[in-house]
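User: I'm designing a mutation panel for Copper chaperone PCu(A)C and want to avoid disrupting the core. Could you give me a predicted structure to guide residue selection? Please restate the sequence first so the numbering is unambiguous.

Assistant: Good idea. Sequence first, for numbering, then the predicted C-alpha cells:
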Amino acid sequence: MLAGLSLLLASAATFAQTTIADAWVRGMVAPQRATGAFMKITSPQGGKLVGVSTPAARVAEVHEMVMQGDVMAMRAIEALELPAGRAVELKPGGHHLMLMGIEQPLKAGDTVPLTLTIEGKDGKRETLELKVPVKAIGATAAAQSGHKH
C-alpha cells in the first residue's frame, strides 16, 4: 500500500503544472500603443518562460529592467528563469510582459487573453491560456490583491 501511495505522489509531482497568481494588465489612455502585464509565476519543477502572445497586441515580449550607465533601461529577453517551487514576480520596474502595437487602448474592466509558454528543465513545453483583467492606470499589485496596511 505504501509503495502504491509513493507512486501516486511521484506521478502527481511529475504532472504538477506551473501556476499563475495576481495577474493584471495596466490600463492605457490614447494615444498609448503599449502597456505591461504583471503576475506571479510558480513552476514546481523549475524551467523558464520562453514565450508570450496575445491577440490584443502585435508584439508581446518578456522584458527586464537594467541599468545602462546612470539610466534604467528596458529590454527584451529570450527567457526568464523560473526556479523550482519559487514564485517569480513580474512587476512594474522589474521583469514584466510588454504588450506593444495595441490598436485600441485597454481600459479598466477589459480582459486580455494571454498565452504563456513555459519550457521545463526536460525541454518539454507547457502552454498556459490566461484571461487577465485590465486594472486602472496607476494600479499596483498590492492594490489589486486587496492588500491593505
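For picking mutation sites, this is relevant: The helical segments are 2-14, 141-145. The beta strands are 19-26, 34-42, 47-53, 59-68, 71-76, 80-82, 87-90, 96-100, 111-120, 125-135.
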